[in-house]
Known about the structure:
The protein is of the alpha+beta class and 644 residues long. It is 16% helix and 24% strand. It has ten helices and 25 strands. The protein has helices at residues 3-12, 55-62, 76-85, 111-115, 194-209, 252-277, 317-320, 347-354, 369-372, 455-468; strands at residues 26-33, 65-71, 120-126, 145-149, 162-165, 168-172, 216-225, 284-290, 321-327, 336-338, 342-343, 384-390, 405-415, 422-430, 435-439, 525-527, 533-537, 548-553, 558-562, 572-575, 577-579, 586-590, 603-611, 615-622, 631-637. The strands form four sheets. Strands 1, 2, 3, 4, 5, 6, 7, 8, 9, 10 and 11 form an eleven-stranded mixed sheet that branches. An eight-stranded antiparallel beta barrel has the order 17-18-19-20-22-23-24-25. A four-stranded antiparallel sheet has the order 12-13-14-15, covered by helices on one side. A hairpin with a 2-residue loop joins strand 5 and strand 6. The radius of gyration is 25 Å and the shape is globular. It starts with a helix and ends in a 7-residue tail after the last strand. The model is unreliable at 1-20, 504-530, 538-547, 551-560, 562-582, 589-606, 622-629 and 638-644 (pLDDT under 50).
Amino acid sequence: MSNLFAIAVLATIVCSSANVESKPPNIVFILSDDLGYGDVSISQMVNRTKEIPTPNVQRLADEGMRFLRGYSGQVCAPSRCTLMTGRHSGHCTVRGNDGSYTPLVEQDVTVATVLRHAYTTGIVGKWGLGDFNTTGYPLQQGFDYYVGQASQVACHDWYPKIIQNNTVGNYALEANAKASNATCGDHHSKCTWANDLYCREAVSFIRRHGKDEKPFFLFFSTTTPHTGFLAGDKSPYAIPAPYDTRFNFGQQIQSYFAGATSAQDDFVGAVLDELKAQNIDEDTIVFFSGDNGPDSHPFDLFDDPGPFRGKKRSLHEGGVRQTIVARWPGHVPANSTTDHLFAFWDFLPTAAELGGLSLPSSVDGISAASILQGHKQDAKHQYLYWEFCNYGNQSGLLPQQYEGGWIQAIRYDAEDTSSGAVSEWKGIRSNRGSVLLYNLTDDIAESTDLAHKFPDVVKEIVGFMEQSHTEDPYWKSSQNKSDQCCGSCFQHQGCHSPCMQRNKSVSGSAYGDDVALAISNPPQHISAIHLLGEWLIDHKHTPADGALHVIYDMHMDNARVEAPGTRCIHRAIVDFHLSEDGQQWATMKHADPESADSDKCPLQMIGDLKTDGNTLYIRWKDSSDEGTGSHQVSTWRKPSFDYD
């Protein structure tokens, strides 16, 4: 934290907003992971075939206020960056996945940094904005207490062997030492589900600090209903009892997703029950939201995106729209709604005003404290802004309308001065190309492009886009369609172009002089986990005509290479550790050798693999070539990593 900001906070700490009583409220923000707009009962315009009961989230809404036009980020790490720093994705330090590559830096000011001068600050669960021993770790970013998984990638292990426990970076969970589907027993009862642990820690934090003279701030960040893994469990939602048998919707993936969502609702209930037990219900404001749009399961049953286009990672409404709810009995009007635009970057200034504290000058957000307490508020956003690099197709129930690449989006209200009618404009463009323009007032699904009818609106939106983006060398944008942007990188030392290699040491420590922060000491190998996702053919010599996929199993320490729709690439095991410089070959072998039909498919993937992180080389043998059995090399490229 900068010294100037520290002085400003200390100078104004005794001053409070006219709308905040002498003792500021406790503040709790519960963040759900990959929760769709339609997955909870509080959202409007949802056409579900089946509904997942969420009585505790509904309780928040019945006793609080819903922001009907709430907005998050588009994907895990950037979304959390906007929430924690009060800055939109054109200014945030973390603009893609994840915080291992660009952790929050010393100059970043988080909501915990602001509140710490008057609050006890704690976080439980998923972080994703900086690993242990970096400047982005929670204890370096204003938090007094942290138990969870700091790594964006590690969070997908639902039964982790180690977690982070304050100043201990490798805190062992003994029950999970050999966690697998076989060893965890029936309903995984012998092992510790990370989210159950985090819920207990959240309740314990409230219990410890509920009667303190200082108020507390708790960021309770779960990993539900995001997919989560357990070795040997084939389900992408390896939930324990009682959630694994709570629903039967015919399809296991839907039933387990519903169980994970129901678990999230139970966690909300546990927090509310503890606040009541401590008799601090009326002294505590509780916020709840998902972090981005839905993902990783069929959307038809629960109408997860609601009426919106797109899903997680999309800058269509389906990727960023949320019903955000806040409850503060006796202060926030019960069972109320507001059309006030509230984005994740508004949380920091809102929390600061509620706590009677000053703001850093760099925030993009606007406090909604007056709105929350039923007062008129003149301060409103001129517009909301997002940017993101993604080359995939993020269609939900409705297809994506824009090309992949570096995407910008603007959302703003324009009032007709003569009629008073408000147009809710949404503009999206790819790679600084033409703008797609939608009027959400009449077209919530972003179906009809109106750019040709409203050139003045398009011009205004382009101006907003240009003034909102600050170039960051680590998150390279695209200047045109052929120029590549950086979407995600999962290595401390950085990735090859279009991302950036880095050689940076960080000094100073919140843990003591014996702990060194050393981004400059990278892992010695590229892990198979960094190869996840789709790879596109980049060479004429290839045994397949489509895309190749790399799927990782963190517990078996290997990856599978699959090429759907072709006989010539079969499932294969890839060595977990790959050469850092990409110059050494890792041997591949069939995981399912009986599926290989050499008569029908002479090009057998019984070869080798190497990679530099951005290009994947597979050396394969033409088994029909008698004698030498010569090898050829196929080359695949991955323009944007995206594992979140």
